[in-house]
């Protein structure tokens, strides 16, 4: 009798485990099958290529990958290279200005659009149109505008203002701000649309309550509206930040890293060393440092955004 009880318990335990595994693997089976190619792509392409990149950055690979392990030699050479240090400084400077100005201008334009102005659809289309262009096209357009001979400077001098100067593309101290202008021209409209969607999602009763309480409009935006738009703000920051980190095509089209290396950026450094200089390991070391920088920023944010909530509960 006891043996039968033990046997039944074993069968019951095995049956429970079987049902548990069946629920895991068979529940929403069609969704799992549909997501399988994407999951395989993530594992093979992204994770696999990341591991491959990190590993070969510790080798002495030149034109082709090789297994000659050299430790941190490529990283020591990387940080001793003036071109890399200049590119990192340029990216930090460009990124700080770009992120702040894009968010501020985008929000201010969204506030203006939210006032139900006339021809709103036309203005919204005009502001969003640059975002539909590639950075290559944007770079070429602004290269013509900023060309000292054919662009704005040449036009103004032909009109009689012979002392007018706008030679930022050839000025090492101003070329980074020329990139900033072109980047803002393309990105502000997109952020404006995101902010406008967030503003249109705010309940109108909040504005009425703020007016009844006598709260100034600017204070309502800063203290009430912006905190309620936290999700939109985070989305905008992540999208703008990702564009800053992978900044490459705008630089190539507008300045090609010049004059000299005054507008060099890390992504261009990686490309030049991997495909131009034939030094794969040096390019992979630079790309690994870019990945590490992104992880240092993303991991604390992800913990505060998701893990911190669970801990506070």
From TrEMBL:
Membrane topology per record: Multi-pass membrane protein
Location of this chain's protein in the cell: Cell membrane
Keywords associated with the record: Cell membrane, Membrane, Transmembrane, Transmembrane helix, Transport
Residue intervals passing through the bilayer: 29-55, 91-113, 125-145, 174-199, 220-245, 280-304
One protein family per Pfam: BPD_transp_1
InterPro entries membership: ABC_transporter_permease, MetI-like, MetI-like_sf
Domain spans labelled ABC transmembrane type-1: 88-303
Family: Belongs to the binding-protein-dependent transport system permease family.
Name the UniProt record assigns to this protein: ABC transporter permease
């Amino acid at each position: 009798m006891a043996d039968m009880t033990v046997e039944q318990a074993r069968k019951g335990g095995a049956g429970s485990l079987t049902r548990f595994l069946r629920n895991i693997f068979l529940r929403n089976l069609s969704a799992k099958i549909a997501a399988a190619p994407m999951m395989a792509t993530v594992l093979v392409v992204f994770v696999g290529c990341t591991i491959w990149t990190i590993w070969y950055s510790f080798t002495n690979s030149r034109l082709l990958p090789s297994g000659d392990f050299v430790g941190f030699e490529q990283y020591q050479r990387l940080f001793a290279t003036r071109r890399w240090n200049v590119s990192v400084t340029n990216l930090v400077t460009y990124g700080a200005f770009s992120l702040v100005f894009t968010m501020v201008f985008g929000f201010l334009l969204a506030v203006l659009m939210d006032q139900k102005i006339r021809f709103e659809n036309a203005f919204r289309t005009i502001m969003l149109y640059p975002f539909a262009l590639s950075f290559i096209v944007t770079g070429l357009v602004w290269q013509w505008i900023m060309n000292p001979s054919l662009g704005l400077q040449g036009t103004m001098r032909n009109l009689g203002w012979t002392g007018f100067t706008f030679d930022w593309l050839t000025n090492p101290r101003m070329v980074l701000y020329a990139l900033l202008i072109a980047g803002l021209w393309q990105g502000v409209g997109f952020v404006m649309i995101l902010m406008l969607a967030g503003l249109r999602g705010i309940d109108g009763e909040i504005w009425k309550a703020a007016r009844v309480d006598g709260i100034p409009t600017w204070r309502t935006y800063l203290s009430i509206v912006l905190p309620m738009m936290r999700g939109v703000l985070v989305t905008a920051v992540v999208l703008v930040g990702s564009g800053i980190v992978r900044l490459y095509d705008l630089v190539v089209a507008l300045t090609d890293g010049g004059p000299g290396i005054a507008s060099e950026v890390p992504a261009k450094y990686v490309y030049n060393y991997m495909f131009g200089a034939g030094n794969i390991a040096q390019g992979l070391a630079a790309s690994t440092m870019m990945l590490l920088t992104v992880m240092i920023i993303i991991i604390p944010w992800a913990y505060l955004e998701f893990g911190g909530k669970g801990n506070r509960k």
